[in-house]
């Protein structure tokens, strides 16, 4: 394996120098900007393809092809790639203000793909995107059909869109980074790219999760887009201090690398931070995160939003307690299995739900009754079609009551009553009530690309697909 994985550009420089004639170590170090030890390790990879003369080496005649394979040449972009990117962006689901979506320009997305291919060997390096509303993964896929790509996002619409346009060749995984990473994603990548929300907390959280995604952090790279106004340099300093405190060092900061249609407060531009984790990267700070963390600039859990008043919690508890049940208050984190005593109802404040929390919370909690407080304009409640889809998705496990404008005009309560096992499809019920188990363990026929994921880690359209596949013929 290439000892410089995932870096490719210095390997190509050394290969070019060796192809041109005799070189000593000093020349290779100077020409590649690699440390001497790294050059020595790379030469060892060439093995018998090198011939030696004193302290100098060169590629043997006829070894150019094998050397090129080790170096991995850059891909030639398709002539219509920019047009394809434009088309993808024109069809992308509308930006969600609550997730701080601001669209990168097609030229930026093309520049990102080309730069990634220039810097890293995408034939070998596993590239993971933490959030991808800009669709950079699709541009990389078009440039490098053999690249191993994963997209992790909180927005189910984006995951479905990428799944459709890539014909399933890009692995898509759902999570909200505030709650952590799925185990199948942690430690799975060589390079991580992200364009996080530009708040101090948002940058810190996405960077911490990015470190967790790297299999070998010291050898991997974390690439972050970040922009701040030149009128407020203190904001930039605060974010940079956060990144440094996580154990990251800045290998490069490329000014104005990213351009956007919007984000005029930061000049519609953002730098590209190329970060290398140090030995102390991550640690306990990388595992922190919760639903109350204000990482976005807008929406119900933004840095300026008020929390749900006590009267809403009291009303929610009263609904959950109907019939004299005891009520257990839960936080919105659906990622951990937690037992619920028999006969106890669960009340959960999901007023900060940007959209995907509700169905996953109901899949994750096994209780006789669950009452969830959500915004009245929640995507699953906005019209009859959305409501019917939610009811159908949860039918093997719960019967739902959707109480709009309750307890006030800004909120709604979703009440889920456990469905009798005899009334549900047995195969679906078994999987739907074990949402934290690896799918391969509870469903032996699960496809290989999802067998190591949990039901709650799947994009929503794939959860619905699993449901259809599990239904009796």
Short overview:
The protein has 473 residues and is of the alpha/beta class. The chain has helices at 9-20, 25-32, 36-46, 64-71, 81-91, 106-119, 136-143, 156-165, 200-213, 233-245, 310-320, 357-364, 384-394, 426-432, 439-442, 460-470, and strands at residues 23-24, 50-53, 56-59, 126-130, 148-153, 171-174, 191-194, 221-226, 248-259, 269-277, 326-330, 344-349, 369-375, 398-403, 411-418. α5 packs antiparallel against α7, α6 (106-119) packs across α7 and α9 runs parallel beside α10 (233-245).
Write structural notes for this entry.
Helices cover 34% and strands 19% of the residues. By secondary structure, the chain is an alpha/beta fold. It has a 7-stranded mixed β-sheet with strand order 6-5-4-7-8-10-9, with helices on both faces. A 5-stranded mixed β-sheet has the order 11-12-13-15-14, sandwiched between helices. Strands 1-3-2 form a 3-stranded antiparallel β-sheet. Helix 5 (81-91) crosses helix 6. The longest helix has 14 residues, at 106-119. It starts with 8 loop residues before the first helix and ends with a helix.
CATH class of the largest domain: Alpha Beta
User: What name does CATH use for the topology of the largest domain?
Assistant: Rossmann fold
The coarse overall form would be elongated
Mean pLDDT: 89
CATH architecture of the largest domain: 3-Layer(aba) Sandwich
| Helicity, as a percent range | 25-40%
Low-confidence stretches: 284-288
Number of strands: 15
Overall tally of domains: 3
Q: Over all CA atoms, what is the radius of gyration? A: 25 Å
Number of helices: 16
Largest sheet: 7 strands, mixed
Please, what is the CATH homologous superfamily of the largest domain? Vaccinia Virus protein VP39
Structural class determined from secondary elements? alpha/beta
The separation of the N and C termini measures: 47 Å
Instruction: Give the amount of beta strand, in percent.
Output: 15-25%
Order of strands across the biggest sheet?
A: 6-5-4-7-8-10-9
GO molecular function: methyltransferase activity; nucleic acid binding
Keywords: Methyltransferase, Transferase
Pfam families: BpsA_C (PF01861)
Protein name: Putative methyltransferase
């Amino acid at each position: 394996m290439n000892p410089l994985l995932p870096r490719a550009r210095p390997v190509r420089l050394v290969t070019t120098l060796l192809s041109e004639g005799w070189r000593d170590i000093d020349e290779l170090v100077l020409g590649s900007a690699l440390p001497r030890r790294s050059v020595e390790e790379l030469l060892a990879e060439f093995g018998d393809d090198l011939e030696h003369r004193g302290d100098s080496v060169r590629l043997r005649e006829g070894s150019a092809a094998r050397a090129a394979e080790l170096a991995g040449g850059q891909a030639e972009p398709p002539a219509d790639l920019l047009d394809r990117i434009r088309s993808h962006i024109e069809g992308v689901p509308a930006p969600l203000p609550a997730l701080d979506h601001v669209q990168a320009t097609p030229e930026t997305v093309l520049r990102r793909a080309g730069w990634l291919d220039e810097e890293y060997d995408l034939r070998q390096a596993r590239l993971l995107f933490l959030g991808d509303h800009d669709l950079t993964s699709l541009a990389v896929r078009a440039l490098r059909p053999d690249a191993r790509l994963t997209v992790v996002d909180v927005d189910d619409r984006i995951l479905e869109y990428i799944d459709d346009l890539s014909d399933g060749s890009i692995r898509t995984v759902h999570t909200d980074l505030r709650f952590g990473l799925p185990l199948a994603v942690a430690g799975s990548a060589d390079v991580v790219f992200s364009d996080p929300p530009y708040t101090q907390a948002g940058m810190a959280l996405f960077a911490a999760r990015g470190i967790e995604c790297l299999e070998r952090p010291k050898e991997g790279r974390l690439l972050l887009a970040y922009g701040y106004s030149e009128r407020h340099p203190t904001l930039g300093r605060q974010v940079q201090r956060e990144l440094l405190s996580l154990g990251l060092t800045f290998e490069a900061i490329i000014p104005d690398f990213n351009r956007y249609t919007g984000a005029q407060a930061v000049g519609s531009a953002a730098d590209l931070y190329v970060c290398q984790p140090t030995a102390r990267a991550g640690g306990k700070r990388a595992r922190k995160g919760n639903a109350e963390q204000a990482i976005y600039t807008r929406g119900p859990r933004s840095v300026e939003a008020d929390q749900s008043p006590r009267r809403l919690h009291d009303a929610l508890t009263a609904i959950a307690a109907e019939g004299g049940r005891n009520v257990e208050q839960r936080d919105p984190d659906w990622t951990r299995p937690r037992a619920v005593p028999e006969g106890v109802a669960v009340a959960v404040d999901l007023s900060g739900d940007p959209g995907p929390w509700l169905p996953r919370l109901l899949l994750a909690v096994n209780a006789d009754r669950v009452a969830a407080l959500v915004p009245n304009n929640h995507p699953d409640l906005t019209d009859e079609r959305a409501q019917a889809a939610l009811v159908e998705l949860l039918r093997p496990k719960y019967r739902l009551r959707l109480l709009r404008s309750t307890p006030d005009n800004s909120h709604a309560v979703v009440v889920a009553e456990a469905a009798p096992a005899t009334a549900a499809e047995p195969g679906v019920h078994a999987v739907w009530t074990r949402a934290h188990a690896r799918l391969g363990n509870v469903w032996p026929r699960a496809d290989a690309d999802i067998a190591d994921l949990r039901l709650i880690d799947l994009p929503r359209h794939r959860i619905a697909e699993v449901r259809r596949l599990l239904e009796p013929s």
